[in-house]
């Protein structure tokens, strides 16, 4: 079964359910803005996580409704109170997590669109009455764009208009003046095992500095992120400016937009940089970069994923399910400095 409930050809109200994470929300922005180009008459309401909302605030033509998962049952009730008495033509349910599905129970919509059966994990298919088309091996962003296709969108190449204030932009201009070639390293992922080694980040920082680039470290305020940044500074011979924990998400977005290039593991800021048109050297070992790599920078990815996952699964990549993750605490150690500096040099020769 592909679908049961028909989608109106010209919907007047669309609700988006995508709570997290930062990278996925960046992918979703491209889908939402493709929808807006196709259906300029439709009002769009986006149910989003609390942290992610700070990045999206001011998104043109989009009403944000924050769902705070940390509040437990109270979070659900607050969401449902906000949307009480409203009815949408279409709900795009773009998150398979059970908590997101439960949240949709209080959202009234004629058509609730979810993933196809193969991707509708955690019972998501029970909460929808229309499925998107199956895709063989999509990037997460292409998976999201399939929701837009259900609403008649044909122009699915991603374009982003991220909301940045004059204050955010001037903050970034002060730190990266016009003409200053800059490498931003966002070294920390949400899971520590996805991080590269501090002495290797430092070696790339030194390499970039020798090529005349200023090096900034950026990231969130978590203690482990600050510690990693301090370790990189310790190992680096070049001067490295440490802004970890000192920027809002919007300020970070503005900085990423002014960088010459970005170095990052599998983490939100890599995808934030993509929205700004800044090339990313992505470092991957646990998840398939074809699925979760920086969308417009796939050629710059340095990946140890294939070797690890083939060894663990005992078969070639082509025979391994697309979303399979490799497991282990030290997989990132397989990424050598030389492989990364080679990508940096290739990128700089184009810049």
Computed structural class: alpha/beta
Order of helices and strands: EHEHEHEHEEHHEHEHEHEHEHEHH
Biggest pleated-sheet summary? 6 strands, parallel
* Content of β-strand: 15-25%
The value of Rg in angstroms is: 21 Å
Describe the secondary-structure layout.
Layout: E1 13-17, H1 22-38, E2 43-49, H2 50-56, E3 62-67, H3 73-82, E4 87-93, H4 98-104, E5 108-114, E6 130-131, H5 140-150, H6 166-175, E7 182-185, H7 198-210, E8 214-217, H8 223-235, E9 240-242, H9 249-258, E10 261-265, H10 268-275, E11 280-284, H11 289-292, E12 302-303, H12 305-313, H13 337-350
Parallel strand pairs: 1-2, 1-4, 2-3, 4-5, 5-6, 7-8, 7-10, 8-9, 10-11, 11-12
How would you describe this protein?
This protein is α/β, with parallel strands linked by helices and 351 residues long. The protein has two domains: 138 residues, Rossmann fold (3-Layer(aba) Sandwich); 185 residues, Glycogen Phosphorylase B (Rossmann fold, 3-Layer(aba) Sandwich). Helices cover 38% and strands 16% of the residues. The strands form two sheets. The chain has a six-stranded parallel beta sheet, sandwiched between helices. A six-stranded parallel beta sheet has the order 9-8-7-10-11-12, sandwiched between helices. Helix 4 links the parallel strand 4 and strand 5. The termini are far apart.
């Amino acid at each position: 079964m592909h679908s049961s409930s028909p989608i109106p050809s010209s919907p007047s109200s669309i609700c988006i359910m995508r709570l997290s994470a930062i990278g996925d929300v960046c992918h979703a922005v491209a889908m939402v803005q493709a929808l807006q180009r196709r259906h300029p008459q439709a009002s769009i309401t986006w149910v989003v996580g609390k942290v992610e909302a700070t990045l999206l605030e001011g998104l043109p033509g989009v009403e944000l409704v924050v769902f705070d998962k940390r509040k437990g049952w109270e979070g659900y009730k607050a969401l449902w109170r906000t949307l009480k008495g409203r009815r949408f033509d279409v709900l795009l349910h773009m998150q398979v997590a059970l908590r997101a599905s439960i949240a949709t129970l209080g959202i009234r919509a004629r058509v609730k669109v979810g993933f196809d059966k193969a991707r509708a994990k955690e019972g998501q298919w029970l909460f929808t009455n229309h499925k998107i088309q199956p895709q063989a091996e999509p990037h997460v962003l292409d998976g999201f764009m399939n929701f837009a296709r259900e609403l008649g969108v044909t122009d699915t190449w991603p374009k982003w208009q991220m909301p940045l204030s004059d204050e955010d932009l001037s903050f970034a201009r002060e730190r990266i003046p016009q003409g200053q070639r800059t490498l931003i390293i966002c070294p920390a992922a949400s899971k520590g095992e996805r991080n590269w080694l501090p002495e290797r980040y430092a070696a790339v920082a030194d390499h970039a500095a020798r090529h005349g680039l200023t090096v900034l470290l950026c990231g969130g305020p978590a203690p482990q992120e600050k510690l990693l940044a301090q370790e990189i500074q310790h190992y680096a011979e070049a001067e490295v400016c440490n802004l970890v924990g000192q920027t809002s998400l919007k300020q970070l977005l503005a900085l990423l937009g002014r960088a010459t290039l970005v170095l990052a593991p599998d983490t939100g800021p890599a995808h934030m940089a993509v929205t700004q048109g800044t090339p990313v050297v992505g470092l991957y070992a646990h998840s398939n970069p074809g699925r979760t790599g920086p969308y417009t920078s796939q050629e710059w990815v340095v990946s140890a994923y294939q070797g690890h996952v083939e060894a663990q699964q005992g078969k070639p990549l082509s025979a391994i399910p697309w979303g399979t993750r490799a497991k282990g605490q030290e997989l990132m150690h397989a990424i050598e400095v030389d492989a990364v500096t080679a990508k940096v040099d290739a990128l700089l020769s184009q810049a």
